[in-house]
Give the backbone structure.
Amino acid sequence: MITNFLRLEQDLLKKSLLVLVSLMVAVFVWVSYQQTVLTNTYQITYFYQLLLPTLLMAVLCGALLAQSGVVVQTSLGNAFASPSTIGISAGALLGAMVINLVIDEPTIWQVWITAFVFALVIAMLILLLSQVIGGGKLQLILIGMAMSLAVGALSSAIMIYAEQRMDGLFLWGSGNIGQSDDQLAFTILLPALLLLALPILCHRQLDMLSLGDDTANVVGLSVRRWRAILLFIAVLQASLVTAMVGVLGFVGLMAPHIARMLGFNKTRQQLICASLFGALLVVIAELFSRSLPVSGFRLPTGVLTVLLGIPFFLYLLSRKKGAMAMQESGFGLAALIKLPKSIALVLPACFLVVTAMVFWPDALGFQFNAWRMAVAVMAGMGLGMAGCALQALFRNPMASPDISGATSASVLFIIGALQIWPDASRVDLFFWALVGAAIAVCILFIAMRYQLRVSQLALLGIAISAWCGTIASMVLTFGAGAASVTVLWLTGTTYGADAQIGWLLLAVTLPCCFALLMLSRHLDLFTLGEDWGARLGQPLMKLRLFIILLVVLLTAAAVAAVGAIAFVGLLSPHILRLLGQTRHWVLLLGSALVGAWLLLLADGLGRTLIAPFEIASGILVSIIGGLYFICLILLGYRRK
């Protein structure tokens, strides 16, 4: 036994040395590469005063995020948890934006305190909401990522509408490790080292929590108190990183898993190894961001970590062992009130008419706003019906064009096309949006064939959205001209809608909506499962492909007309179900009416709330829809 123990310790020591050597090699390569260009005193000063502080910052940030990930995963018993997936990073970024909006030049300590407070509030809210619906592991991550989307919309609104005050903060918010002097790195060095030491000092409590709450209680650990203390430390670590360099996504998810894959099972070993790997990941990302400029601009380090982290997240989601460990009993939607079909359809129609009357333009503004309102109505109709059809097709109440990634993929392809062909017509943009939506929906269709559960499919869609959104946001670093076009499509707005856009949207939306209505009985059967459809003679594969084609057409047309509009396709069918409706001809018609009303309301409020300035419809819908999404889970979902 002693021999086996010694061999195990030697094996772990070798692995730790391997990680440390890898980190040292990466640092050596970077330093050697930079030293090759040192030819005069100015360049030597540049190297020692700027590049070395950047290296120190990369190591500290990577280690802090990695340890934060280990603490969060161990204390919550959730292998998918990390600062990026339970809202800590998004909350910290919002706090940093707010303090920069309120104070002209805040100190690093003011930014850190505000980021910590916001991150703690958001994280505690997400944990509370997940406990209310049963405390499931996938539910926690699902709520965390949905809340992150809503909080991210708030941060985007601040950056866009206070651009003079937020000048340069977009690049910082995307995770910018580069330092302009050595002041910040050495200012936070001592607090960072203290925060790195705290989890290691608490390794025994983490070991007991890793055994489960019951076992930890038996051995005398105060589970609630220690879980709160450890999460407090994890939020401190992640918020310090965000205050210093912005968001470095998914480092806190990848590093702990890499440590466990190498055989480090004890928490102290995981903390040390994950710290080294986190530092290594950020150093490598920073090295590549400096070595691979795009269009003459260096990519933010946080962009590269997200591009690496999303595939890793999908890999964890697809692992059979991990998927079995994360299985949940699914969701069932409970009606809050049972209304007759006619009233369930008349109510949203009345809301739509009243909203149109309230925001109807006067004679002076008619020529500018009439087509905007028409486009908002048609785009909302298309997105509402597309969401209803996807939920029936995938038997997944979390499905919608935006949650499923179709909207983000369409926007990504449109932005890519505009960079190559700046004068592309709306028809060309519609084609590229069609390609992007088709790819995203086909990925979900393939995943459904592997029998992923409801929550897993929702997480897959959110991951696709995050990946596409990260690539799209990269364009914002390429220059002012491209940035203005990118912001237009990322935020989602009816601004600039004209007759060409309106007629294109009308030509696609009305036939597709009519075709979906004709398929309403088939959608009813899809919700019962494949066995019933096969017994009744449905050509399942042909129907699926045809419905997917209609959904992709509706999504592409809406995105080509108004950009990225989130949550309309998710909310619209749910509102009808909360009113007690189950037949799909009612759900489809009602979803079209509710979607049109939501987008028309967002457009009207965006034009009038802070007139003469304007709030993009997509930002309003994202904020309202994200909060409603959380409330919907609390009110309408229950574990079976």
Q: What stands out?
A: The two ends are 47 Å apart (CA to CA). The chain has 28 helices and two strands. The CA atoms of residues 605 and 611 lie 10 Å apart.
